[in-house]
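Quick question: what would this complex look like in 3D?
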Amino acid sequence: MAAAAGVSASTASRALRESPLVGESTRLRVFEAARALGFEPNRIARSLRTRSSSSVGVVVPDVATVFWAAALKGAQDVLERAGYVVLVMSSEREPKRERAALRTLIAHRVDGILLATTGGYEPPPSVPVVFFDRLDPAASGRVAPANVEGMTLLFEHLRGHGHTRIAFVGGHPGSTSADERLAAFEGAVARAGFPPRSDYLRHGDEAWSEASAERAAAALAALHERPTAIIAASDALAVGVLRALRAAGLRVPEDVALVSFDDPVFADLLDPPLTALSRHDREIGELAASMLLRLLAGEREPAEVRVPLELIVRRSCGCDGRG
Amino acid sequence: MAAAAGVSASTASRALRESPLVGESTRLRVFEAARALGFEPNRIARSLRTRSSSSVGVVVPDVATVFWAAALKGAQDVLERAGYVVLVMSSEREPKRERAALRTLIAHRVDGILLATTGGYEPPPSVPVVFFDRLDPAASGRVAPANVEGMTLLFEHLRGHGHTRIAFVGGHPGSTSADERLAAFEGAVARAGFPPRSDYLRHGDEAWSEASAERAAAALAALHERPTAIIAASDALAVGVLRALRAAGLRVPEDVALVSFDDPVFADLLDPPLTALSRHDREIGELAASMLLRLLAGEREPAEVRVPLELIVRRSCGCDGRG
DNA sequence: CCGACGAGTGACAACGATTGCAAAGTCCGC
DNA sequence: GCGGACTTTGCAATCGTTGTCACTCGTCGG
């Protein structure tokens, strides 16, 4: 290729990278030759030499989940704009696979990593890591939703409707969002002066699956002193709860009110339309990616960012809807 | 690292790759040293040398869409198992961005590409390409749903209910699935002996968005001779149609029956639960990846694979449900 | 005892780009 | 016409691995 333009490899390289060290006419000649030959500089060779791969690894529990897909998209967007390529890996919620994924990424010499950890993280990694949604308590560089504020918003809304017997269907303990949301719920209960009731505290399985929430809600529905309202800690959990309540012959919101932390897709078409917090998944990915870019640029890392959430009021909480 | 084990680089390399050319004791010593140093062989250097990057590019219109996210997951799964790493790129439904993505992947010297084309494809690429869902008519190596069979299934089911005025809300013309589903619909209409009615043929926008289907369905609802049944060519379109029908004060399925090509998430919780074809997204990704692996293994390419679809009967078609 | 042989190892040259440094070319003023 | 300054170019080394080739040992058959 350099030969085709009648210059040395060095000059061709400089020309293609718009180095000011190369003459105007040469630059044009090189570009012309490159175009004619359909030449694309080999990024692998460049990476080897420059010790920077222009690639970033993103590790999530499951790419096919709406939340992670959207977060990935947010991240991919800003990373691509910055000239990085994204390597995706699924940890499948297994620390072992997460560790394997991390090793693979390191082997590929990614410049940085975005990680929603399932517990497989063990420092120190050789590249900057930004945690998103599922944080490592010890690490810095973290982006997550404002779990406490969000949960408080949900709780207070229900309390505003006069509910005092409020139950909670949470995620699987051990992840940032599950733990923080639960803690926030318990805090709100205490602040409201309600007696803490462990039978009103339930949680889903590892995958925060609909089925697990269905079981949890069925148990709540069977309680002697049934709760009058339920807070589900995620969209899938809310859908599971809804299904269980319906199966138990309970009307929502007349018999039991229901609110969800995450807004399910088509939430407004469900029966009844669900009151929920605004989605934040995409933004989490964007912010995490931006933070990583800043770290890569050598900036001192801002320890933690929280994404604020808003309440979207629909019918399932007992509000009249559309308003 | 080689030094730490007291061997040459060549030997270390051979040892780590389990070459039979290296002595048992040396192999152990090398592994020990590698473990102690947390050494991971540099895949970039290896790629440069072996001219194979162990990476595959996957280009989709939008990673955050349920369909593409699931297809990506399917692909990622089988590729990772085969030792490949996946580079994801979003084409955002723009041929220009697709071309840019393809160039970037080539620059990174991926071993192969999985492409859902939006029209930016221009042969010949330097690596094997397998098309999925959005096929290039000229290229070989293709995986897609059985659009014709699926659409026929839907149509015949409605006809079995006695419908004769069946309308169609399709995707945006120009993509494989949009075109094939429309053609299959028209074919079925003709075979049934119904008069072709262009006012019963509508389509969504580029993104197959809910909003566009809402507009299309609103127009259908306003027709003097309103259709008694509607087939939506995708999940999002079906949801849009449902929303429009509801806004028009029409009951589903009593006033207008509705069936969907793709099964929406939570389809069973919608009001009414939607009759639809089984999802095939994940499988599309898996099959495409498998086909690519076969191509990479040097096998002669099987030109085209179609994923069969099943009908999931719920209430929106007029069946009694649960059965 | 010698040569052939095989196993195990190291030296060395790539892979294709980048980069510091030196050399060549250009231009100016004196 | 010459030295100095500046611009443009090429040379050669380098990034970490892999594949080729040659070399060193034992071992074994003749």
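Answer marked as accepted. The domain at 147-278+310-317 of chain B is CATH 3.40.50.2300 (Rossmann fold).
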